[in-house]
Amino acid sequence: xxxxxxxxxxxxxxxxxxxxxxxxxxxxxxxxxxxxxxxxxxxxxxxxxxxxxxxxxxxxxxxxxxxxxxxxxxxxxxxxxxxxxxxxxxxxxxxxxxxxxxxxxxxxxxxxxxxxxxxxxxxxxxxxxxxxxxxxxxxxxxxxxxxxxxxxxxxxxxxxxxxxxxxxxxxxxxxxxxxxxxxxxxxxxxxxxxxxxxxxxxxxxxxxxxxxxxxxxxxxxxxxxxxxxxxxxxxxxxxxxxxxxxxxxxxxxxxxxxxxxxxxxxxx
Length: 268
Fold this sequence. Notes:
alpha+beta; 2 domains
């Protein structure tokens, strides 16, 4: 019974409000009783409140699509869960929270240790096995998982992936459509979070170890450079914490989105 109740919080809110309306004593246009005056039996809902107003407020909070899973949900590095998706808090304002996906999106292809691409059934949402790239850097083979390897140097190549993920967050997770945005990390995002990045016409150098945030480089993922280099190098944050670039045609990158949501979607 408890499981059924939890899946129908929004329905219960309507029922509770109906009970309140039918129970409230009215004289002319003036309510003699308020929601806090009307007692409520919380045995069925397993709630903690014992009056109608408190029950409505409690059910409303539980109906929100996101919840804090670590910390207060407002400090950098705290964790927030939204349905199937997990995020790290980057910044928190009065109305919004900027979050960074905990895992890369399940997209594109995998690349075997023998440099052969192969497809998997992609979900387009976060997947803990999608690490982007693993292995050694100098002279050693990389293992790529869930990567895009065609037209990768243009921001427009990621548009469909990002839009699909945003639609999932809105349609399935039920985030506020008007107050949710999804984007690919860029140069400024990494700089602002503490990564050290330098570049000239031919190379990008630097690292994200300087951010003192290990979760920033817990996967390997593409970022949009401040300016495109000669030879159209692909830039990404590596699992080693280093900033990498590549021009080889078999190279690829993972996608790890930034998501901004309304605080009203979070149960604190």
